[in-house]
Amino acid sequence: MKREQKTMDKIRWGVLGCAYIARHVFLPALQKTEGSVLTAVASRDRARAEEMARAFGAERFYGSYEDLLDAGDVDAVYIPLPNHLHREYTVKAAQRGIHVLCEKPLAMNEAEATEMAAVCRERGVRLMTCFPWRLDPMHRRAQEIVRSGEIGPIRYMRAGLSFCWSSEDNIRLRPETGGGALMDLGIYSVDMFRWFIGEEPVEVSGTAVTPRLPVDVDETFNGELRFSGDVLGVFVGSFGMRWGGYEIFGERGQIQTQVYDPWHRSKAASLLVKAEGSQRAEAFGAHDLFGKAIAYFTRCVVTGDEPESDGEDGRREMRVVDALVESARTGKRVRV
């Protein structure tokens, strides 16, 4: 849906929290993005907010997230807070007329995402789940090949994104903050399958295991999404191994890559395409994916266009995640 066009020289950004991804990924990308400027940083530790603000040229810093939102000097905020805080601060920002770029997952569950999308819609602000990987030319080319029919009707997809963490005090391993491999890593594959196929799954199954660490979240999550026509997507997200990549199998060929960096693909990569007895590798240079995401969201704010991964898309995605969690809990397949 397109809303009234904005007219402004630059989008004034605020950042809620001093998370690693904010300091080391988002803010360096923001500094290089035309039409955007960092105006303010907030943290519950005011000294940290001041240090990060000064490091990246922001004029203002605050010791609470509410103070930044109430100050009236930002047009948009980036929310890299723990998952359980996404709903609260997205809603508070929207109620003040502030656009929101929110880290994935959009929310803890579908109910939260529904509220977030509704408030943003009512207030006329843009809401976007931050999935920079969708803007990678390599993945967009893979989607183009899939939808062109070159490899035939899709029958099966396999994807994974995993890292190895051994510290049990990592925030990603805390149940109260919405941690776990599904919410942190598996969500990328869920998003990828939905994006490639262009529809929602009809049924899912999930298995959660924690073989190494004394924590109450899934260290490894294996999931299966079944789409209409019995197209299957199988994924793994894990804190206990190192692997990333995906394969898409059609009736006449396949696509694969072993490079799957959803944030900032710093190295060249290639797609291997096999179809009708031939194969080729399509090469792609390195890309600052966060920079692309910021520029894209900025355009949406200025033009009034809804982002591709808007609140409604996030609501549908969290519905799938809820079903995967329920399947892992009950040991049964769950209709979506």
What is the correct CATH architecture of the largest domain?
2-Layer Sandwich
Average pLDDT value? Answer: 94
Number of beta strands: 15
* Gap between N and C termini: 25 Å
User: What is the CATH superfamily of the largest domain?
Assistant: Dihydrodipicolinate Reductase, domain 2
| Named CATH topology of the largest domain | Dihydrodipicolinate Reductase, domain 2
Based on CA atoms alone, the radius of gyration comes out at 20 Å
Shape category: globular
How many helix segments? Answer: 9
Uncertain residue ranges: 1-7
Q: Going across the major beta sheet, what is the strand order?
A: 14-13-12-11-7-10-9-8-15
Structural class per helix/strand content?
A: alpha/beta
CATH class of the largest domain: Alpha Beta
Task: Write the topology of this structure.
Layout (H helix, E strand, L loop, with lengths): L10 E6 L3 H12 L4 E7 L3 H10 L4 E3 L2 H7 L4 E4 L6 H10 L3 E5 L6 H14 L3 E4 L6 H12 L5 E11 L16 H17 L5 E7 L10 E8 L3 E8 L1 E11 L2 E5 L11 E7 L2 E7 L4 H15 L7 H20 L3 E2 L1
Parallel strand pairs: 1-2, 1-4, 2-3, 4-5, 5-6, 7-10
Antiparallel strand pairs: 7-11, 8-9, 8-15, 9-10, 11-12, 12-13, 13-14
Helix pairs in contact: 4-5, 5-9, 7-9
Describe the structure.
The chain is α/β, with parallel strands linked by helices. The protein has two domains: 136 residues, NAD(P)-binding Rossmann-like Domain (Rossmann fold); 167 residues, 2-Layer Sandwich (Dihydrodipicolinate Reductase, domain 2), CATH 3.30.360. Helices cover 35% and strands 28% of the residues. The chain has nine helices and 15 strands. Helix 4 packs parallel to helix 5, helix 5 runs antiparallel to helix 9 and helix 7 crosses helix 9. It is globular. The N terminus is likely disordered.
